[in-house]
Structure formats: structure tokens, C-alpha cells
Design brief:
Elements lengths: L3 E3 L7 E4 L2 E4 H5 L9 H17 L14 E5 L5 H9 L4 E6 L13 E5 L13 E7 L10 H11 E12 L4 E2 L9 H12 L8 H12 L2 E11 L12 H20 L2 H7 L4 H16 L5 E11 L11 H4 L17 E3 L1
Parallel strand pairs: 1-12, 4-5, 4-7, 5-6, 7-8
Antiparallel strand pairs: 2-3, 6-12, 8-11, 9-11, 10-11
Length: 341
């Protein structure tokens, strides 16, 4: 591939912050503020399993019976891309991220991971992919970059190709309205949204549908799904068994997420001490575990199609009734190439 070069060690360099590893390039350029160490990789793999539970093990939501090329933006641990490659062995799957996360030795032969900056224009050819999957990119895409990012996705999709986006809105909600602004979960949420601005848009999840439509996608659909922060069933309230199972499984992910997403932006952006951050995280975990609050994060899922293509690629009524459902950015100069690893 003439557009790729071996990965530069610049992207492998890490810095230690309160005993966690962060990509030096990402934090120094305001690109991405979550850790990239083994603990975080394990959490990302676990969260992929939670998404699978929420989406009934469906990895691809639009009707694409025989995809030939798929791009994942913000591939992280590589779980989604590897699983898609296993399900579609004749499809070329490429995962992009700003950090060269370690990948398994037994990956399918049809999946490749590259390092690139998605805050700069895409270097992929036009009309190339059948599907672009973008998940958990709100923490990586610059605030002013979103419409350009959407336009790049539209350009690299073939006519009739699909974009599929999944984002969590990290503003803790209560299914029964019992969480108030004084609760630790809400304090954590407000601090998080404040701490990543002005670099990132903490409300990007709410704007996916509008941005996709503005970029030129058609048949755009958005769904809101609750991601329970723990099991809600306490023997006294009516609880959906499925939500309870998801919440019970999600508890471990949330405990780690509340710390990993907060550590750098709260201490560096808001000036909090590590002790204060960990105290707030401990209180937020306790509330997340309390079934009386029925706490959840809203998950927004949005799909849209690039105009054109054959009729069989159009969105079907059966799909409408079923729909359930990154590289974090960086900055390069002109003529950059993606790095393979």
C-alpha cells in the first residue's frame, strides 16, 4: 500500500501520569486524554462485550450482505474489527487509531491495523469502503472537526455505502429521576464535560444525526439506548431482565471507566488533586452500584447511507424495526501517510 509506512516510534511513546500510561503525542497535542496501558486495553475489550450484549451480538446494522471493504475509525483494542473480519473472511477490514495498540497474534488474515490522524483529512481513496464504523470517537475528534470528519467518511464510502456511529453521552441519567446535580455521578459527569472542552465536544453523541444529514447522508436514523451502570433489580422494582443482565455485566467496566476517563482531564484540565479525583470516583461508583438510582449513560446509535448505489443496498423496512446501533485524532502536515503495524 503506497499510502502506508512503518509506524513511527513517536506514536509509541508514553508518559506516566498518576501510575497510568498515556500516549505522549495524544496528551501533548490535546488529542486524547484516556490511558493506553494494558489495564485500559482490557477495559476496552470488556466494553466491546457490553456493546455486543446491548446490540444482540449484531456488529453491522445496515443491510450489507457481502461487504468487500470495511473501515473502523477508533479501533482501540481491535475487538470489533477482528470480530467483523472473522464473520466476513472475504472482506478487507482496516482499523485506524492514533495509538498502535498491541494486537493479538492470531488475528484473521483479512484484518489490518493502521495508525493515523483522523483530525486531518483522510488519505483513503474515494468511493472505497462499503461500511465505515465509528465508535467512541467523541473523546478524540476535535470540536471543530466533526463536519469535516463526516464529509471524509462520506467521500471514502462507495455510492450506497453506509456509515455506522456509536457514542456514549457521558451525562449520567436516572431511569426514575432520583439522581440530582448534588449526586457524585452528576458531579463526575459535569466535571468530565467541562474538562474536555474546548478540545472536544462532550455532547457530540446528541448531534450525530444532524451532522450526518448536513454532510449529505440519506436515510439517516438515530436510536437512543440506555447503558445501565449496574444491575437495577433489587426485588422491589419492576426491571427488564435484559437491562438487569447488561447492567450487572457492565458494573466492572463502569468502575474502571469512571477512573480512566477522569484522571488526566480532571487533574490537568480542572486542577483537581489525584486524591480528590479518586474520592469523587469512589462516591460515583457507589451510586452507580445502588439499584435505587437506576443509573445509566445514554448511548446514541446513528446510521446513514451515501446516496447512489444499487437498489438492494437501500435501507429496508425490516431493518428499521431491528436497529439497536476510533483513530482518535492528531495533527499531521500535508502529504502524510498512514502507519501500518
Amino acid at each position: 500500500d503506497s499510502q502506508t509506512i512503518p509506524v513511527d516510534n513517536t506514536y509509541r511513546e508514553v508518559v506516566i501520569h498518576h501510575n497510568r500510561e498515556f500516549q505522549r503525542y495524544a496528551v501533548e497535542n490535546g488529542v486524547y486524554f484516556a490511558p493506553v496501558d494494558d489495564d485500559e486495553v482490557e477495559r476496552l475489550q470488556y466494553m466491546h462485550g457490553i456493546f455486543n450484549m446491548m446490540f444482540d451480538s449484531r456488529l453491522i446494522f445496515p443491510p450489507i450482505p457481502r461487504p468487500r471493504r470495511i473501515l473502523e475509525c477508533g479501533s482501540g483494542s481491535g475487538s470489533w474489527a477482528a470480530q467483523v473480519a472473522e464473520q466476513h473472511p472475504e472482506c478487507e477490514v482496516i482499523g485506524i487509531d492514533v495509538f498502535p495498540y498491541p494486537v493479538a497474534d492470531d488475528l484473521p488474515a483479512n484484518v489490518e491495523f493502521q495508525v493515523d490522524d483522523l483530525n486531518s483529512p483522510s488519505t483513503f481513496p474515494s468511493n472505497y469502503f462499503d461500511l465505515v464504523h465509528s465508535r467512541m470517537m467523541a473523546g478524540g475528534i476535535d470540536t471543530t472537526r466533526w463536519l469535516g470528519y463526516m464529509s471524509d467518511i462520506l467521500r471514502v464510502l462507495r455510492p450506497g455505502g453506509w456509515c455506522q456511529m456509536v457514542e456514549i453521552y457521558f451525562n449520567a441519567q436516572s431511569d426514575n429521576g432520583t439522581l440530582t446535580s448534588n449526586h457524585a455521578l452528576q458531579v463526575w459527569s459535569q466535571n468530565y464535560m467541562q474538562s474536555i472542552q474546548p478540545y472536544k465536544d462532550p455532547r457530540a453523541a446528541l448531534r450525530l444525526q444532524s451532522w450526518m444529514t448536513q454532510a449529505g447522508f440519506v436515510e439517516v436514523e438515530s436510536r437512543l439506548l440506555p447503558m445501565p451502570l449496574s444491575g437495577w433489580s433489587n426485588g422491589k422494582q419492576n426491571t427488564e431482565p435484559r437491562d438487569n443482565a447488561i447492567g450487572t455485566a457492565n458494573r466492572a467496566n463502569i468502575h474502571r471507566l469512571l477512573s480512566s476517563l477522569a484522571l488526566y482531564p480532571f487533574t490537568q484540565g480542572l486542577g483537581m488533586t489525584n486524591t480528590d479525583v479518586q474520592l469523587l470516583v469512589a462516591q460515583a461508583r457507589s451510586e452507580a452500584d445502588n439499584p435505587a438510582y437506576k443509573a445509566y449513560f445514554p448511548v446514541y446509535v446513528c446510521i446513514g447511507r451515501k446516496p447512489g448505489g444499487s437498489r438492494h443496498n437501500r435501507h429496508s423496512d425490516s431493518h428499521r424495526s431491528q436497529t439497536a446501533t476510533g483513530s482518535k485524532g492528531g495533527r499531521h502536515g500535508e502529504g502524510r501517510k498512514r502507519a501500518r503495524h
